[in-house]
Amino acid sequence: MEVPRRGRGKAMAVDAEEINLYEILGVEKSSTKVEIKKAYHKVFSPSALSSHPDKVPEDERPEAEMRFKAVSQAYEILHDDEKRRLYDTHGMSAFDPSRGNGMDGDVDFDDILSHMFGMRMGGQPHPGFGGGPMMPRKGRDEEKKYEVTLEELYKGKTTKFASTKNVICNICKGSGGKEKAKPKTCATCHGRGFTQGLRSVGPGLVTQETVMCSSCKGAGKLFKERDRCRKCKGDRVIEKTNFLEIYIPRGSKQGDRIVLSGEADQEPDQEPGDLVFVLSEIAHERFTRAGPDLTAHLEITLAESLCGFSRVVLKHLDGRGIHINHPRGHILRPSQVLKVPGEGMPIKKSDAKGDLYLIVDVIFPDDGWLKADDDATVMKLNELLPKPKKQISAETVDEVEYEAGASLEEFGANSDDPRGGSGWVDEDEAEDIQCAQQ
Ligand SMILES: [Zn+2]
Ligand SMILES: [Zn+2]
């Protein structure tokens, strides 16, 4: 269930390389840094102030804003040797934030393009353009982690819970004002709903970015104190608690998304975003899951490994006992794997299930099970159990000392021979070792 994020995208779309930054600044491609700087300052000179966003008529403002933003952006790239080189070689795609390089800022080239060149990079037009506030069509989705046990994923689960979210005020219907009251244009943003802020994008580099006006919360209009809606105090939204239900289908897995359409916070003039629960599987003490399959350990005694058994070996995720009948004559060895078809996890939207892999653990008797002086049992066991096939003969024989609890991690560990130790030490470990040695 992949849910694409909506709202105003900040990544540029494909045709972005067609932007000509030299053209935006009005300079030649061969121009020097000084010339670029001059061109940039000319735009912001007193003689050019008539086109400054704050000086133009209201309905031309967004366009003037965009022009200024584009010029700033062009300058930011072209007056930086490294960025200019990148731009000359790769075009604007070098600064595509989705590729993880260049400027990671909230540079909305979609807007720049549509206003500079009358192009639009896909999607529907923003409502409210032409003087009004810029608002994404759809509100932000809200993501929440939802922890589930393997049992719940096996059986499926429906759960109800209380959820508090913002909804449009029912008294003022989202206007924020009393009936018949007239809002006035927000003084902070001049009715635009957003303001320009400067943000540092590197040493000595700033970029302009558009942020929602904090005074009017993007509405562009405000009510006087006494004209504000009594219920929401002019906020236009109120908090509301309602009961939601989510259904987790059996066989769901880690990372699955349960989407409650339109259940995120509401904002006036916006379609509310979705409330999304992202499933997070809690590790299980008996079972390990990989896709539709499960593994578990099958603990048997030494006698069972030799003689066979018929018993319940495991309790499944739905509480059923799993009975295994292992006949005499087939010895089960440590780490041997038994595959039980159809006893894995359910597969979503079907009646099929994955498989269960049982890994044999032979529980050997404890030390001391055989008393040192119990010669009778030793004789009996030696009689019962198979003898070594062949004695090793050698001319010289040394009886040696040994440690019984050694680890192969130590084997060759102090050499750079890749066949030794754990074979490979990762950087973090290497660092830890160095620290410990100092
Ligand atoms: Zn209200
Ligand atoms: Zn405002």
UniProtKB/TrEMBL annotation:
Domain CR-type: 156-241
Key words, A-Z: Chaperone, Metal-binding, Repeat, Zinc, Zinc-finger
Every J domain range: 20-91
SUPFAM superfamilies: Chaperone J-domain (SSF46565), DnaJ/Hsp40 cysteine-rich domain (SSF57938), HSP40/DnaJ peptide-binding domain (SSF49493)
A GO molecular-function annotation: unfolded protein binding
Signal peptide annotation: none
Any one GO biological process: protein folding
Zn-finger region bounds: CR-type: 156-241
Alphabetized PROSITE patterns for the sequence: DNAJ_1, DNAJ_2, ZF_CR
Chain residue ranges for the region called Disordered: 405-438
InterPro entries: DnaJ_C, DnaJ_domain, DnaJ_domain_CS, DNJA1/2-like, HSP40/DnaJ_pept-bd, HSP_DnaJ_Cys-rich_dom, HSP_DnaJ_Cys-rich_dom_sf, J_dom_sf
SMART domains for the chain: DnaJ
Domain of life: Eukaryota
Name under which the protein is recorded: Uncharacterized protein
Lineage: Eukaryota, Fungi, Dikarya, Ascomycota, Pezizomycotina
